[in-house]
Write a structure and sequence with these properties.
Elements: H1 2-23, E1 27-33, H2 51-58, E2 61-67, H3 73-82, H4 100-103, H5 109-115, E3 119-124, H6 144-147, H7 164-167, E4 182-185, H8 193-209, E5 215-221, E6 228-231, H9 232-235, H10 263-266, H11 278-308, E7 315-321, E8 326-327, E9 333-334, H12 340-343, E10 347-350, E11 357-364, H13 368-375, H14 390-394, E12 404-408, E13 411-415, E14 419-425, E15 431-438, H15 456-471
Parallel strand pairs: 1-5, 1-7, 2-11, 3-5, 4-6
Antiparallel strand pairs: 2-10, 7-10, 8-9, 12-13, 13-14, 14-15
Helix pairs in contact: 2-11, 8-11
This protein binds calcium ion.
Calcium ion is lined by residues 34-35, 73, 225, 322-323.
């Protein structure tokens, strides 16, 4: 009996020893979701159906006031992956869509991890283009559009329509005729590129479970980026008439020159009613929701694969949207402006042993690089301009940052707990002050209070801080 107990104990110790030895340091599953704004159950939006991301949030930390540093795909990713602000000590460094030109000087996160013993894999849209920073990856970056047989679906090109009815509107090799901005095709998840990216990532999870190296596995989903194409069963989760619409479908007061990306209007057909018709608002929001629920289901499959392959306990999971997105607020769709709706984006981090955290501190995406360095016990490279989130994960009541800084083109913003202020650089490198929103009194940003004399000292202080942080260091 005693011998049996000792034998059992030894076996357990050996098993634990082998397990921890094999899986140290932790793996990282790094999921980006293109154009995903914080329109998720875990961000308090009850009408959208996102059970898998909500579960991930419960098992980790939700960053409730998380911001992209640039409201456009390529530059946001370049900024996040280099850990650099898109302005300041490297002028407009992160504004470029490609990060390879300067990445030799400033290593991206995956390149840094690779040099420190990680096996790094890129699936789908992670960096903006497939051949960006090839030195960052242990094997060539993979995309469904080029690495899988596109002939499986004739219309499954970059733009990803699979329904022949949609295809009738297409002229794939030119832009004179364009497809609709949405489709509801009665197809399996795998019919679209994102489903194939999910399969590839699950194959990699299985492969890496047998490896003796830690991994950084990047999985970039396209939806809910336009076009809002998703399998029909995700559309059927919703009753379109019950989806609440934006209640500020008008231009903000004192701000006439406000635009967003015009992609929905300029790049797609079947956008009748744009931008004011209520039926158009309902349809487009339904389409975005179906796209988000589709990706949510794929995220669920990835989490299941981690579990089934014994990697759940030793894998950090990070999920982020690359910037915000207007869904009818101010009668706008898309990004490319300095409104809160364009800048705020979800960030979830599952760090083993830290569940159920809902953190309200201001955070931005340049914080992700140093956070992951700290979590895997690597020194934070000197070039990083963010601040590790590990402190607030360990001590959720701690302060983090008093201000965040963002850029888009020649516009620069500072976000504090209460305000979002934006200035525009002119050709002679001076600045025009263009807008100030008081988020405490006006969270929907319906009134630009820049010219209100009550805010003069606020504007002066914010402008000074913006300028000194981005341009004097
Ligand atoms: Ca994007």
């Amino acid at each position: 009996m005693r011998v049996g107990l000792i034998t059992f104990t030894l076996l357990v110790l050996i098993a634990l020893g082998c397990s921890s030895e094999k899986h140290l340091p932790p793996n990282i599953l790094f999921i980006s979701v293109d154009d995903l704004r914080p329109e998720l159950g875990c961000y308090g939006v009850s009408q959208i159906i996102t059970p898998n991301m909500d579960r991930l949030a419960k098992e980790g930390a939700v960053f409730l006031n998380s911001y992209a540093n640039v409201p456009v795909c390529g530059a946001s990713r370049a900024s996040l992956l280099t850990g650099l602000r898109p302005a300041g000590k490297v002028t407009l460094r992160g504004y470029k869509c490609r990060s390879d030109a300067s990445a030799a000087e400033f290593k991206t996160l995956p390149e840094y991890l690779k040099q420190n013993g990680y096996y790094t894999i890129s699936n789908g849209k992670m960096m903006h283009v497939q051949d960006d920073s090839p030195q960052a990856w242990s094997e060539p970056a993979w995309r469904a559009s080029t690495n899988r047989d596109a002939s499986i679906h004739f219309y499954n090109t970059y733009d990803d329509w699979v329904n022949p009815i949609s295809g009738h509107n297409l002229k794939p090799f030119g832009r004179k005729e364009v497809g609709p901005f949405y489709e509801s095709a009665d197809v399996a998840d795998e019919a679209y590129h994102d489903g194939q990216v999910c399969i590839k990532t699950i194959d990699d999870i299985k492969r890496m479970a047998k490896s003796d190296k830690p991994f950084f596995l990047a999985c970039g989903f396209w939806r809910p980026h336009l076009p809002f194409n998703a399998p029909k069963n995700y559309w059927e989760l919703y009753d379109r008439d019950k989806i609440n619409l934006a209640n500020n479908r008008f231009k903000p007061k004192n701000l006439t020159n406000l635009h967003s990306s015009q992609e929905l209007l300029n790049q797609y057909a079947a956008n009748e009613g744009f931008p004011t018709d209520e039926n158009f608002h309902k349809l487009s929001k339904h389409a975005y929701y179906a796209s988000v629920s589709y990706i949510d289901a794929l995220v669920g499959k990835l989490m299941q694969a981690l579990k089934e392959n014994g990697l759940e306990e030793n894998t950090i999971v990070v999920l982020w949207g690359d910037h915000g997105f207007h869904l009818g607020e101010h009668n706008l769709w898309g990004k490319h402006n300095m409104m809160n709706v364009s800048l705020k984006a979800p960030l979830l981090i599952k760090y083993p042993g830290k569940a159920g955290l809902r953190l309200t501190q201001l955070t931005d995406f340049i914080d992700i690089y140093p956070t992951l360095c700290e979590m895997v016990n690597l020194p934070i490279p000197e070039h990083c301009e963010g601040k590790s989130l590990q402190n607030i994960i360990e001590n959720p009541t701690m302060e983090h940052k008093d201000a965040l800084f963002m850029a888009y083109g020649n516009k620069y913003s500072i976000k504090t707990k209460q305000y979002l202020y934006t200035a525009q650089m002119t050709k002679d490198s001076s600045f025009t002050k263009i807008m100030l929103f008081d988020h405490k009194r006006d969270p929907q940003e319906n009134i630009n209070v820049l010219a209100n004399p009550d805010y003069k000292s606020v504007v002066d202080q914010l402008h000074k801080k913006l300028y000194s942080t981005l341009f004097e260091k």
